[in-house]
Amino acid sequence: MASKKPRFLILSLIGIAFLVITAITAAFVIDEIKGGAVGDGQNKYELIIDPGEPSSTVVKELSQAGMIKSSVYFNYLIKFTRSGNKIKQGIYEINDGMSSRKILDVIISGKVKLVTFTVPEGYNNRQIGDLLTNKKLAKSREDFLAATTNPALLQKYKIPAKSTEGYLFPETYSVPVNFPLDRIADMMMKRFYKKLESISEAKGISPADLHAKVVLASIVEREAVRKEERPIMAGVFLTRIEKNINLESCATIQYLFDKPKKRLFETDLKIISPYNTYINGGWPPGPISNPGLPALLAAFRPEKSDKLFFLLKPDGSHYFSATFKEHLDAKKKYIDVLYQ
């Protein structure tokens, strides 16, 4: 009788192992049949989960959209993983190549849909507002401008102005849908100051002195076409200021218009505005664009020379002159001939 006990135990263990293996296999099979991907990922669906929305509503929407095989199984999966209270609000990009477990993982981890936008160098705040509106990140340009003139934001970064113009660093960003506009502005300003760390001359600079550099950089950014010309262009503007010569920057005139003009006329140069550097001496009251790193570097490291004038040639480069006569001769050679 004693010899039968070990044999019985062995058979029992084998039976238990068989049952466990069978149960695991069955679970995998059921998971694949009921919880596997519906398709190959070609069909996409934008799932919007509102605050406080019950999981049953989410499951129903996924089923109706054809993103899951079984709503019963998905509800079971939520209960089994105790995820009912972990589903986060937001907008998610789902596709039919995702299994039920993958979809659940996405909506409980908060991996919401991101919107990517690129701000070109030299965009002003109005243009950024339009860009965000087109990307449906802002309801209107005015909403974004309100966020960029928030006194709390200006005080946080000690900006001696009434707007963040000049401090929203032009780059590519990715944010969730419905991301607050003040946080977008704050994110862009953080990037600005992070980039500023790469300029050794900016270390320890006062807010007022930095603002002056940003004003110069913003003008250079809008005037220059080629990066290598930025330092000498910055030097031209500084020399004109030192000699009490008006900047006469077309870029400051363009800032007065809702959208830049293809060509400025004499009447445009006579517009009454503190930003009109044709009729006003000194710097404009604030930045006219958001400069990139090359323009900021030019403002901190200008190339001084005897040049006082420059004009844009048809090939995209600039012709720099030391005298007004030389400038007029260059204008006849490169500009006037285009309109004859």
TrEMBL record:
GO terms for cellular component: plasma membrane. The record marks 223 as: Important for catalytic activity. GO terms for biological process: cell wall organization; peptidoglycan biosynthetic process. It catalyses: a peptidoglycan chain = a peptidoglycan chain with N-acetyl-1,6-anhydromuramyl-[peptide] at the reducing end + a peptidoglycan chain with N-acetylglucosamine at the non-reducing end. The keyword Cell wall biogenesis/degradation applies. Gene3D superfamilies: Classic Zinc Finger (3.30.160.60), Endolytic murein transglycosylase (3.30.1490.480). One of its GO terms (molecular function) is lytic endotransglycosylase activity. Its EC number is 4.2.2.29. Belongs to the transglycosylase MltG family. Functions as a peptidoglycan terminase that cleaves nascent peptidoglycan strands endolytically to terminate their elongation. This is Endolytic murein transglycosylase. It comes from Leptospira idonii.
